[in-house]
Every structure is written in structure tokens, then in C-alpha cells.
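Lab notes, practical 5.
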Amino acid sequence: MSENLKPTQRFFPEVKLYLGIGSTTNSAKEKLTAALVCTLGMLTLSLLAQQLSVRLDLPLNHFIAVSIGASAVLVFAAPHGALSQPWPVLGGQIISLFVGVLCQIFLPVDLLSASVAVGLSVLVMSALRCLHPPGGATALGVVLGGSTLEPLGIYYTLGPVLFSSLLILVLAYLLNRPFSWRVYPAHLYHRRNFSTEVSKAPRETELTYQDFISAVSQHETFIDVTEDMWSEILELAFVSSNKRHSNEHAAIKLPIDRKDSKLVCSSTSLPTMIKLTVVS
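Output from the prediction step:
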């Protein structure tokens, strides 16, 4: 089909894909809801931090980590994303902060320590299964902050980032809760909405790309996967399904007892769908 298109007709769709301008599946209602909830979340966090700053007579940066703004985008705009869940948010932020502190101490060159801090934070977050992009900003901020953060001392490793991360998680739970399609965290949403499995009969029908995208669009909230990746996931699912069914339908030879015409087989764990070839 694409071979029949004119060069100009192929060019612009390809440019969109290269630039990552995909067709979003979430509705206008969800976009507005995400913006509203994110605004309320950041406003609540800022007001609480301001009150603490005034009461304790401490600078505002003792209570708000700048990178928490990026975390807010994830938990409020993509509440069901893997990078938005509680452990990535909390673990990713705290771990990256300690990585940044260590790099600032042991690597005196600013550019080198900044680069290593971000790269090392990615490695450690990945190893501990808490990859969270804003964590890279936290590590970078600690290193580049340098002298401006030194007066905070060790408190900075436990204060603004810990306070902001914990509060943003509480707010994500509370502010997303009124909207049934964006309950946070993701596991709570799935427990409430997908407690039963689809029966076997409907699962045997063929799945198309259009069916797949239709199912994705019903999820409402933003899913951080490109169109190419959706297509690739579906194709890999088909490959896996074909392999499984090929194995299940592989012909096996079983001896037959002609006296009572019953199958004689010692195996008790045969696949549920197999072809039996009678040995004559």
C-alpha cells in the first residue's frame, strides 16, 4: 500500500515518526484533567513548602527540589506509566541524589563529575529497578549546584528531595483518586478494574493492529509508547503466539493398544492442544 504513495505523501508521515510526533490516544478530557491535577498538585506542594519555610525561618529550597516538577509531570500526566510508580519516584530521586553527592565529593572537575553523576545514576537506578528520569536532573543539580548547596550540608540529601518526593506521591494518590480511569498507583487501578480474566473462547479470535490500538485508546491515560513500538510489540506477540501454537500442534507419535483401542502413554503433562498420530 505504501509503495503506491507519492514521495511527498510518504515524506511527511516519516518525518513525524522520526520526530516522535505520534497520534495521542488519550482524550481531550484526559489532557485537561492531567493539566488541572498537575497544577493543583504543584500548588499544594508549593504552599506547604512555603508555610514550613516561614515557620522554620528557612529558605524555600530546603523543602522543594527543582527536579520534582519533572516527577509531577510523570505522576499526574502519566499516572500508570512504569516510570511514574512510587518506587521509581522515591527510589530514583533519593538514589540519584546520593550519587550526585558522591560525584561532587570525589570528582572535583565540574563537567566530568556532572556527566558521571547522570550516567552513574542511570546505572544504579536501572540496577535497583527504579529508573526515574527526573533523578538524572537531581544528580546533575547537586553537582552543578556546588557552593550554593554546601551550606545545606547533609540535610540536602534528606530534606528537599525526600520531602518533595513523599509529598508528590501522597498528592498523586489523593488527586488522581476522584477520576476512576487514573487511579494511582497503577496496580491499584488494575486491581479495581481488571479483577476477572477474559474467557478462553474470545481469546482464540485473531487480534489485529486496529484492535490493539482500540484497546489502548480505551485506557484513557497517556501511555509513553510510540506508534512504531506498539506495532513492534504486536508483531512480537504474533511471533510468540505462532511459536507456541506450533509447539502445541506438533505431531507426536503415541503407541496404541489395539485390544481396547485406548492410548497408552506414560506422560501426564501433555499440552492441551496436540495432534495425535496413530502408529499403525
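Observations recorded by the TA: The beta strands are 252-254, 256-257, 262-263, 276-278. The two ends are 50 Å apart (CA to CA).
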